[in-house]
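Provenance and format

Records in this collection were gathered into a single text stream. Each protein contributes a sequence line and a token line. The two records reproduced below are adjacent in the stream.
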Amino acid sequence: MTQPIAMIYDDQLPTLLVALHPDATTAVLSGHKILEFRKRFFAKPFQAFVYTTGRGIQFFMRCGAAYQGSPATIAKLGTLVQHSDFAATMRYLGPQKSGVAVPIQATYRLTSTVTLADLRAVAPQVAIPQTYTFLDQPQRAKLLTYLTRQSYDLHHQVDWRRRQPMVDTLFS
């Protein structure tokens, strides 16, 4: 059964446009990737339309407040909750003093990919951000309306309750 994103859209949460590489999109949609690592990122809970590099917007997701800590703490969190490679996360975060792990709470796969051409037909000035862009701004209202009308067919909820004790060991 399909329904529009508007049915699950929360107008009380900030709405972002973010980009992921194809391998990260595959991992998120399969449920293997439940944390998104960034050197810096939006810290509060949010919802986002996710643009897969070279393909288009393939899903919508909800995320909790970001965990912020030293690169070692963030890498350890990834190892504990999603079996990430500690060394690879440390290499990604590099010499930063801190890093961010964004917990993915739910994903909603769109029934059709929204391409960059589709986006530009609605909002010619749209650019895919390297970090993120807020879609819930007055100048992007037309684009947000278009995106919330897109339908989804697969939904995956991440069970963070069972992972919370692991998180608490690092962030309590």
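Adjacent record:
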Amino acid sequence: MTMVTTHPETGRLPSSSESSAERDTRDPDTARDAGSGPPDAPRAGLRGVRTWRPTPRLLWGLTAVLLLAAVAVTATLGRSAWQQQREADAAADALAAGRQIAINFVTMDAASFDADTKRVLDESTGAFQKEYASTLAQLKPVVTANKTVSTVERAEASLVSGDEDSAKVIVGVVAPTSNASTPQPEKKTYRLRLDLVKVGDAWKVSTLDFVS
């Protein structure tokens, strides 16, 4: 004998055409299981993923490397700037010294011959100093007898080349000059080329030539 179960509410047999969704709606447990499947799938895929985070020790190491690099760059730039400043200072000192030596060389007065020539000797060295000193014995009587007076009205200097120990300077000089036969000063123009060398803390002339 075959027994058939009917729905109490409707008194009809369950139809084979009823959709699974309708059965799931009537069965809360089945619907809960079906609905919870898809949202859990992405989370299951992320369970093995780890986010990299630097350790404090690594951070300190990177910081130290960056600091050392910054210090090295600063030191290099600082030394370069310091060297450039030294060269600029040396060029300026050589230019000023060359100009003053040229002025002292051209300046001469019969009344102060010894003092005038001593300045030039003190500012010279090497071959020029020896050559200049050797001419003074013959030059002094001529200057004294002619009552020669030579002064400098204007002097302009330019640096040809140079470094911290040597330099070449060109100096143009306008020198009013008078003597016994020409009491009214005549302006004379000279162009001098000086080779300078650093002796201790002072620049001195080692070669001096008249140039056109």
